[in-house]
Amino acid sequence: MLKTGIEIEDDLFVESNGYDGAFEKVRRAGFDAVDYQSIATGNKINKMAKEDAFKELSLMRKAAENNGVEFSQTHGLWPVDDTTEESRKANFPNYVKNIEYTSALGCKNLVLHPILPMSWRGEISEEDTLSLNVDYFSKLLPVAKDNGVRICIENLPFVNVSISYMENVKKVVRTIDDEHVA
Asked: Does the pTM exceed 0.85?
């Protein structure tokens, strides 16, 4: 069944209304799904210890369910520096956390930006950029499978970066060839 959704964030809408109040307002406004942005970098949930975050996410999920609202998707880590091998390794645990938190909300879809080895200023080469993305998302795949979450690679508006184009995102997805990466 088709759902109608709206984006929400902890630091704005949810904080000022509380969980029950926020999801009641979402439902009264005619929405039955939300795109949850607040598992991204720097938000309240990511600043908490993992155990505390899971408690908060459980409360949020219950409030949403009580109001007939589901989490259609979440958005992960951003902004992010993935320009070096070291920074990509340092970011990996945060991506794992994004997957786990998405699952804790009962959500099946996590939107992640592709790896941009030269940020949005350009790239090493199209082939190397696509290969790097296949490798990185393949490493996240076991975590996504274990948590029942689909990683949805987002295309971006950077015209000088090949992975921004949908055709190249599809190449990465088709190369990985698993239902947990879209």
From this structure: yes
What is the DSSP-derived secondary structure letter of residue 68? T
pLDDT digit string (tens) for 62-120?
Answer: 999 999 999 999 998 877 888 889 999 999 999 999 999 999 999 999 999 998 877 65
- Per-residue CA distances from 33 to 28, 73, 112, 134 (Å): 12, 9, 19, 30
- Tokens representing residue 94 in the block: 């945060």
- Enumerate residues 6+ apart whose C-beta is below 8 A from 2: none
Q: Quick one: the chain helix, strand, coil %, rounded to 5?
A: 55, 15, 30
CA 173 to chain centre: 16
Tally the C-alpha atoms within 13 A of residue 159's C-alpha that lie toward its C-beta: 0
Triad 147, 59, 74: Cα angle to 5°:
45
Say which DSSP state 106 is in: T
